[in-house]
Amino acid sequence: MKATPPKRALNFLRWFCREDCLEEIEGDLTEIFQKQYGRSAAKAKRNFMLSVFRHFRPAFIKSFKSRVHRNSTDMIRHNILITYRTFLRYKSSFLINLTGLTTGLACALLIWLWVYDEISIDKFHLSDNRLYQVLRNIPGPLNTIETSESNSALLPPALTAEMPEVEYVVPLRPAMPGIVTGQKEGVRAIGMFAGKDFFNAFTYRIVAGNRNKLLAQKEAMVISDALAVKLFGSPANSIGKTVMWDVERQGGGLHIVSGVFRKPEQSSMEFDFLTTHDAFLERSRMDQNWYSNPIMVYLTLKDGVEPAAFNIKLNELYRSKREDAGQMFLQRFSDRYLYGHFENGRVAGGR
Amino acid sequence: MKHHSLGEFEELVLLMVAGLHDEAYGVSILENLQEKLEKRLNISAVHMALKRLEDKGFVRSRFGGITADRGGRRKKFYAITALGKRMLDYQYALRTALYEQIPKISFR
Predict the structure, then answer these.
(1) Which secondary structure element, helix H or strand E, spans residue A157, and what is its range?
(2) Runs of H (alpha helix) within B1-108
(3) Which among A106, A120, A244, B105 is least surrounded, fewest beta carbons within 10 Å?
(4) Quick check: helix, strand or coil at residue A315?
(5) What single DSSP character describes residue A62?
(6) Cβ contact (<8 Å) for A32 and B42?
């Protein structure tokens, strides 16, 4: 009985080997295999496979390039060839074109990155599609309409009490530049006074502290991770520590760190720390009434509430408090960055 | 002969092709080389050398008849060409000339 060489190795050889070498190689391998098979079948098989593998080298591998010439591929190849020759012939215009195209592409890419970054500003909050700022259109000089961010300090409690569509109301007031002092020397920092639900509506990452209780106490202060490192060495180290805050024209005050947030890059709000709205009310020398508008008001609507319908109810509320009231309306918070400029009560661009 | 090159193993295979005269094909070259060199070789090395020699024009080949123990594949016989013979002569002369330059004194 004739021994047969290993099938798989043989098929592999037939698959890769050039036609003009195959007959010689396969014949010689088979002959050696037959001779060795008499002595040891396993050794013969092993040797056959090894030999096939040793033949797997460029000199014996056939060309796998498709021999079918299609019009489209030939045309492209021809065009590339002509292009290459043109480059060689007109070197200076080639260089000018190359640098021009490269610069153009690089610019387009950079612009795309920049636009992408601008579009994604303030979009990171979890309730982004329900997060609004309350704005007012009020009569300006010469029959114009002015749009104002400012609102009365009485608006947040009124919204909480009378508008069930509202989930969180956040009063906000930027503070004057000041100096905060912890264990080490003081540093300049920008602060804001915020309502207790600030971190529920604006979902910054909390590094230390309980998100729901961050601004519960009047003296509470929530600082950024960068500020925490500057003041106390680390975020975890700063919880419960006392901070002295000196503000221009507003005097100083002692605050207790209740939490640390991560300062994101894609936020339009610039602040290093927050303290409470109650602390603001205490410092404020302005009367609380519907004609005094010292704060900004943000809110999240409950799921499924239409802002247009809410606007109507909002104006009814406002008119019931103040007779000469202007128009109150909501604008989505993340739209404020790129569409924040108003002319005659309508959006006229931004940024 | 300047622009022709011949590797060491190629030279051995070429010598073997010339020596086996008309009976030289892959397996016979391999077996004879193994016997002379007292060393195990793989057939792929012989095939590679033969292919190079043929590309350089030192050997030419023809197919023989079908034999049963080759799975129906023909043998490919190699024969040395005139160019191949001149190459061997040149190498032999070169080596002899160089060998004779060795000063006898150094190995007394």
Answers:
(1) helix A155-162
(2) 8-20, 26-37, 43-56, 82-100
(3) B105
(4) helix
(5) P
(6) no
Residues 6+ apart with CB under 8 A from A275: A175, A191, A192, A193, A194, A215, A219, A220, A221, A222, A245, A255
Would you mind telling me the total number of residues written for chain A in this entry? 351
Query: SS3 helix, strand, coil % of chain A, rounded to 5?
Result: 40, 25, 35
CA distances from A168 to A133, A154, A160, A275, A332 (A): 12, 15, 8, 17, 14
Angle of helix A41-54 relative to helix A7-16, nearest 10 degrees, comes to: 20
ipTM of the complex: 0.86
Question: For chain B, which residues lie within 8 Å of any Cβ of chain A, measuring from their own Cβ?
Answer: 25-27, 30, 42-45, 47-48, 51, 63, 69-71, 73-76
Q: Between A and B, how many residue pairs show a Cβ–Cβ distance under 8 A?
A: 59
Tell me if B4 sits within 8 A of B91, measured CB to CB: no
- Model pLDDT for residues A306-340, shown as the tens digit of each residue: 999 999 999 999 988 888 878 899 999 999 999 98
Please name every residue paired with A146 in a beta bridge, in sequence order, or none if there are none: A138
| Residue numbers in B near A29 (CB within 8 A) | 43
Is A24 in Cβ contact with B70 (below 8 Å)? no
Stated pTM of the model: 0.59
Q: Is A17 on the interface with B (CB under 8 A)?
A: no
Residue from B16, B45, B11 nearest B29 by CA: B16
Other CB atoms within 10 Å distance of the CB of residue A134: 23
Q: Do B27 and A50 touch (CB under 8 A)?
A: no
Per-residue model confidence as pLDDT tens digits over A203-257: 999 988 888 888 988 889 999 999 999 888 888 888 998 998 888 766 678 899 9
Residues contacting residue A311 through CB under 8 Å, at least 6 positions apart = A328, A329, A330
